[in-house]
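From the shared-data thread, chain only:
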Amino acid sequence: MNEKKMNPRFSIVIPTLDEEICLPQLLKDLSLQSWTDFEVIHVDGGSKDKTLEKAKAWEGKLNLRTISHDVKNVSAQRNCGATEAKGDWIIFMDADNRVPSYFLLGIEYKIELAARHPKKNFDVFTTLLHLNDEDKKDSKSRTSANFINVFLRTTGKTEKPMVLGAMIGIRKQIFKKIKFNEKSKVSEDSIFVKDCIRAGWEYVVLTSPTYAYSMRRVKSNGMIKTATSGFIMNLRYSIGDDFSENDYGYEMLGGSSYKMDEYDEDDDEDEIDEV
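Structure, as tokens:
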């Protein structure tokens, strides 16, 4: 059992908008973590579904706080949650992520290992991703995941890395100085990390532990459309676009814009009882 202290080691910040289906699954994963020194800050952007109700059901199983934010903006929600964070490290996660039970323990191991080797120490990180069992069955999802991992690793060595907001970790002391640009309609995650690098902080892409990244956007929009819009956004990002004027079709609609098949609401209650 890890030693408890006044402030937690990690603060997990999860922004949501209509994520009544996905959020409970991630909260279950977090409740099963072998490393328990963390808090969860859930920042909701005005969900119309049962997201808030689903989150409240997990308050007895996790060190969880829910904040109802008055702005439907993922950057503003992340900034809000991070401002309330008490942990040494802030980890931003998307509600549709899935994480193995050893995920936070693995992150702690990488942090401690790097601290013993000054040249390998880091201040900001992301990790490579894997697919959940359902997405593994889809060839387009497998192709997309492989491409994303290659892009994360290759651009991660540059001053303008491609980053997924689904998983970003940062020392809390740094976040006091650099925040997400709330005017950016897209690529706010990559811009955030780029700003950290330009300020002199070390960024790294961890090859492990990995998390399950949802391919629901690829399945909903199609691989070609998703890849095309992604290519255009990354091209614009590379030449300095701050995306304050154009979202390039990547509108912030939340979980309600994706159809989830075979969802049974009673399953959520059963899973809470099992933890």
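The chain has a mean pLDDT of 87.
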